């Protein structure tokens, strides 16, 4: 039986496609085909305390550990996953990638983190999208890592205008004071794992970390799904 015959046959019963390359999925595959799953360009930053993501925060804010699940560039097929999660309503992609990432970081420095906080969206933006994509990633990550998800401790109180046309200084100005910890008693003594979908300049993560660190005896580490490379 040829491979093509088999995939044609499978298509009749499992009409799902790989979210990265579009190939038909087999029954044993979830979201990604085996090929795309095994070739995720993982950063492995969680194995190294000093890495290029963590260096982004040196001298700016006090981040304990930082990691990203995978690298992506402009033409990467893995970038499509983030696009579908953010703009196409496919929140399940975030949950599934979060689950994979949670498994990936188990047994690393990140075991020291005990609560997970997704970067909040402004309520108006959340209503528009229907969900917070970072919260979906956090949900999946908590499922496989056993950490506690906190979604009502850090809030976004300012609707920031689009960041893309601003330089780093202007971006930082734009997001500083956008976030507020509303239940500091819950955070005291906790090592927070802060979650975002992608990192480019880090200005949003810095603003969130600065706000969390105002509560005494807290630590902040960072997890992002995608790390953009040129
Ligand atoms: Zn694929």
What report would you give on this structure?
It is a single chain. The chain has 230 residues and is an alpha/beta fold. The chain has two domains: 1-39, no CATH class; 40-228, Rossmann fold, CATH 3.40.50. Helices cover 36% and strands 18% of the residues. The protein has nine helices and seven strands, in the order H-H-E-H-H-E-H-H-E-E-H-E-H-E-H-E. The strands form two sheets. Strands 1-7-6-2-3 form a five-stranded parallel sheet, with helices on both faces. It has a two-stranded antiparallel ribbon with strand order 4-5. Helix 3 (79-87) crosses helix 4 (91-105), helix 4 (91-105) runs parallel beside helix 6 (133-145) and helix 7 runs parallel beside helix 9 (203-212). Zinc ion is lined by residues 18, 20-21, 23, 32-33, 35-36.
CATH topology of the largest domain: Rossmann fold
Number of helices: 9
Order of strands in the sheet with most strands: 1-7-6-2-3
User: Could you name the CATH class of the largest domain?
Assistant: Alpha Beta
Distance between the termini: 43 Å
How is the biggest beta sheet arranged?
Answer: 5 strands, parallel
For the structure shown, list the relevant keywords:
single chain, 230 residues, alpha/beta, Rossmann fold, 5-stranded parallel β-sheet, two-stranded antiparallel ribbon, 9 helices, 36% helix, binds zinc ion
Quick structural overview:
The N and C termini lie far apart (about 45 Å). Helix 9 links the parallel strand 6 (about 190-200) and strand 7. Helices cover about 35% and strands about 20% of the residues.
């Amino acid at each position: 039986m040829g491979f093509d015959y088999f995939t044609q046959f499978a298509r009749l019963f499992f009409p799902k496609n790989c979210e990265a390359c579009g190939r038909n999925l087999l029954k044993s595959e979830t979201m990604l085909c085996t090929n795309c799953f095994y070739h995720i360009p993982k950063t492995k930053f969680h194995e190294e305390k000093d890495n290029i993501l963590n260096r982004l925060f040196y001298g700016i804010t006090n981040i304990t550990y930082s990691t990203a699940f995978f690298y992506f560039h402009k033409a990467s097929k893995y970038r499509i996953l983030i696009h579908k999660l953010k703009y196409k309503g496919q929140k399940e992609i975030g949950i599934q990638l979060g689950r994979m990432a949670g498994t990936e970081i188990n047994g690393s420095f990140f075991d020291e983190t005990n609560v997970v906080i997704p970067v909040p969206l402004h309520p108006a933006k959340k209503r528009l999208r229907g969900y917070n994509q970072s919260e979906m990633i956090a949900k999946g990550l908590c499922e496989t890592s056993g950490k506690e998800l906190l979604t009502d401790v850090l809030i976004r109180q300012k609707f920031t205008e689009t960041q893309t046309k601003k330089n780093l200084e202007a971006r930082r100005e734009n997001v500083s004071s956008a976030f507020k910890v509303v239940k500091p008693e819950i955070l005291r003594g906790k090592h927070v794992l802060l979650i975002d979908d992608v990192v480019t300049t880090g200005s949003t993560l810095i603003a969130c970390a600065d706000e969390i660190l105002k509560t005494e005896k807290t630590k902040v580490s960072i997890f992002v799904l995608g790390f953009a490379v040129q």
